[in-house]
Amino acid sequence: MSKPLTVEDLQKEASSFAKAQSNHAEPRLFGVTDGKAVGTYLEHKFQTHLQSCYTYGRGNSAKGIDFPELGVDMKVTSIRQPQSSCPFKSARQKIYGLGYSLLVFVYDKRDDEKARTGRLEILHTIFVEKERTADYQTTSGLLRLIENKANRDDILAFFQERMLPVDEVEAETLADEVLRSPPEVGYLTVSNALQWRLQYGRVIEQAGKVGGIIRLV
Fold first, then answer.
1. Burial 113-147 (b: 16+ CB within 10 A, else e)
2. 3-class DSSP assignment, residue 154
3. What are the boundaries of each domain within the chain?
4. At 62, is the pLDDT very low, low, confident or very high (cuts 50, 70, 90)?
5. Which helix (H) or strand (E) element contains residue 109?
6. Which CATH architecture has domain 3-82+100-133+191-215?
7. Which pTM value belongs to this model?
8. Which of 5, 44, 65, 80 could join 54 via S-S bond, C-beta 3.0 to 4.6 A?
């Protein structure tokens, strides 16, 4: 009988999956250089493994994240450029986080020319709690301003300097919220675009060293 999937189960399974995957030679991955194809392969494989042991609602593009019931999205990225994109909902995400946690697999792909197989060595498996998914420079900058007795005008000027994608009304509402309820430091680099561009360099550096960034492998 399958049991309901919990966040703790997800973390434990991600850790053992990453170790097993690092030793697996896969003919289908030989010569594949498209990061999206590699990511899809790994995500499907992990989901298939989980579905053989647990019951859970699997996400889709309409729901937006991979594990909607757990509030977790899965990201697979190459160590050569550890980044991915995610849907833009509002500029608030850059300050208060994406609204869900991230399970991040960071791989290095090697091809074996003789055996004609590809191997994904999972170098880092990291769980970023939702409270830590905001942008590092934005959150740390705002906290410095608040420490320095900033007022609403200071916060609005900071938003302008950082080209936060907000209109005037939204900026004022957000500035008041920041003064009322200062954000926690986030550890992603979140770049402005039609979709957010998430970069994981700092998460990799800080995993296991700060609260909310859990190193699984």
1. eeeebbbbebbbbbbbbbebbbbbebbeebbebee
2. helix
3. 3-82+100-133+191-215, 136-180
4. low
5. strand 101-112
6. 3-Layer(aba) Sandwich (3.40)
7. 0.93
8. 5
